[in-house]
Specification:
With 490 residues, this protein is of the alpha+beta class. The protein has six helices and 26 strands.
């Protein structure tokens, strides 16, 4: 059977098409360059150290992170340049790392800077655009100051206690764990010595002291007489890990011990001051005696007061008409001054106060009994002294005590024993008002008694001498100091 003409023509056309297709499918290799390569992209960002919190203005060190991405491949290398000084070009480094941590040295203002430039290269050799980021850095230097309720050392005789703290806004962990301190008399070219070592004297050279608490930054500097009399300056330095150093200076007057007797003014007001200050002027000359106005307040640390008292052979302590909380707080310390432990010379005490017994806020009974030498139960808690009456001496050589007016000025001591060899004065027999019993109480006592054959350790007067006639009061003070306490007066 003969094929139809149409079927034959279709077969021939298909064969021709297959031959044409075969002719276009040779064994040529794929050319990757025929596919366009997209350039990689570089990125920069800043992060804190591991576990830290980013604070863009208070870091002395920074960790720089970067990354790169490539849509049609991968990043093969990074090119990094970090400029730390304005205008000073930094070299380019090739790296596969994606971060670096740098520590910066700040200027005097605690500032530094970084200009980071970054580019990357992909696996086909294409380079990204160069990206840059300017990053201002700031390290806050530490600060030093007093803790609250600090002592101003207005009445300083060399002993002093400085309670301070150091603080670093970057975190105290970035701050040194010790401070260096010295007085203005020190040779600062000498290397610092740790506190407590032989020769570690801040008056001679710098001294290193560790912080008591690094988290709080607290520390305490004690001066035990190293500061010489005159205007003194204490300098305290602390540094941080960026080598930023802070200096704190405090200037105060160190008073010289001018006289054997230290007058302790424990009276709020000026009335009694006129008498006692004039009496000291008469004994030692104006400007020739030493004063401690303890009515201004006790020092921060009681050892400062004890070391101050121990610079004087005799302490003359007087109060006003009411009980003194300062005297009550310092009573145990005064007892240590008069009756010290081994290694310290005993001091002598002249105490003038009408508020030692029988009043609220009086010193402890043990101080009155053991140190002052009389019973803590008053014979008459408060009495008025008529101007016509006298304080009569009970020992040869003591002058009479003449009062100037009708005043409530004292307390009577109880007769502690049958012997009166310890009592120095008693008032004349008198009755101020009829509702009160007649009285002639003891108003001055020494401890130990005269029969001991030695000078007294303590002499106590329980009437206000500032209500005496000035000449009479001065004569009594002079006699008590020289005759009873053994003070050699000018």
């Amino acid at each position: 059977m003969r094929s139809p003409p149409f079927a034959l023509s279709s077969a021939l056309a298909l064969a021709a098409a297959l031959c044409a297709l075969a002719a276009g499918c040779g064994n040529e290799a794929f050319d990757p360059e025929s596919v366009p390569n997209r350039r990689p992209v570089a990125r920069i960002f800043v992060a804190p150290p591991e576990g830290g919190e980013l604070n863009p203005t208070s870091y002395f060190s920074r960790t720089f992170h970067w990354s790169g991405s490539d849509e049609d491949g991968f990043v093969q290398a990074y090119y990094v340049s970090i400029e730390t000084e304005a205008g000073a070009s930094a070299p380019w480094d090739t790296t596969a790392a994606t971060d670096t941590t740098m520590t910066f040295e700040t200027d005097d203002a605690g500032r530094a800077q970084a200009l980071i430039r970054l580019a990357c290269r992909d696996d086909r050799g294409a380079y990204s655009d160069t990206v840059s980021q300017y990053i201002p850095l700031r390290n806050f230097p530490p600060v030093i100051n007093f803790v609250s309720d600090y002592d101003t050392f207005f009445w300083s005789y060399g002993a002093a206690d400085f309670r301070c703290f150091a603080l670093d806004l970057d975190g105290n962990v970035t701050m040194d764990d010790s401070v260096v301190y010295y007085l203005d008399t020190a040779d600062t070219t000498l290397a610092p010595l740790p506190a407590g070592e032989p020769g570690a004297n801040p008056a001679l050279r710098p001294v290193i002291r560790r912080l008591d608490n690094l988290d709080l930054g607290t520390f305490q500097i004690d001066l035990h007489g190293e500061a010489l009399p005159g205007e003194r300056t204490l300098t305290i330095r602390v540094s941080d890990e960026a080598d930023a150093t802070t200096s704190f200076d405090w200037t105060w007057e160190v008073r010289a011990a001018l006289s054997d007797v230290l007058l302790v003014d424990d009276s709020v007001g000026d009335y009694d001051r006129n008498f006692y200050y004039a009496a000291m002027d008469s004994l030692y000359g104006p400007g020739g005696w030493s004063l401690y106005e303890i009515a201004e307040g006790l020092p921060d640390r009681m050892w400062v007061l004890l070391e101050t008292l121990r610079q004087f052979p005799v302490v003359f302590w007087y109060t006003g008409g009411g009980a003194s909380p300062r005297l009550a707080a310092a009573a145990e310390l005064i007892a240590q001054y008069v009756q010290p432990p081994a290694g310290h010379a005993p001091g002598k005490l002249l105490m003038v106060s009408p508020a030692l017994i029988g009043v609220t806020g009086a010193p402890p009974p043990s101080f009155v009994t053991n140190t002052l030498g009389f019973r803590s139960t008053p014979d008459q808690s408060t009495f008025y002294i008529p101007s016509t009456k006298l304080g009569l001496p009970l020992k040869a050589g003591l002058p009479e005590l003449a009062f100037t007016g009708n005043i409530s000025a004292g307390v009577g001591m109880a007769a502690a024993d049958s012997s009166t060899t310890k009592y120095l004065y008693r008032l004349q027999y008198h009755r101020y008002i009829s509702s009160r019993p007649a009285s002639r109480p003891f108003v001055a006592v020494r401890n130990p008694p005269t029969s001991s054959g030695t000078f007294a350790n303590a002499v106590t007067v329980t009437v206000q001498l500032d209500y005496c006639a000035p000449a009479s009061g001065l004569a009594v003070l002079r006699a008590l100091l020289s005759q009873e306490l053994g003070v050699v007066l000018p």
